[in-house]
Design goal:
Blueprint lengths: L1 H14 L22 E6 L3 H10 L1 H4 L4 E6 L2
Parallel strand pairs: 1-2
Length: 73
Amino acid sequence: MAFLAIILVYLLVDKGLGRYGSQIEYVPTTSDLDGLVIAVKTTLKFHESRIRDIIDTWFQLAPNNVSFFFIHN
């Protein structure tokens, strides 16, 4: 699982997605993402910027694998 996460980070950062650069050359298939969980813990102060960044990156590749946790402070 960790190896897959590292590959996805490489794809997003090195190859680019959305505002980070050009298009991704390889898009993982649904079976590649089985078992991958992307959790984002956020607070009111950072909620908007964190949610926007995740939707622009990880959510594009694995919308069913992304969960957001909000802590009211």
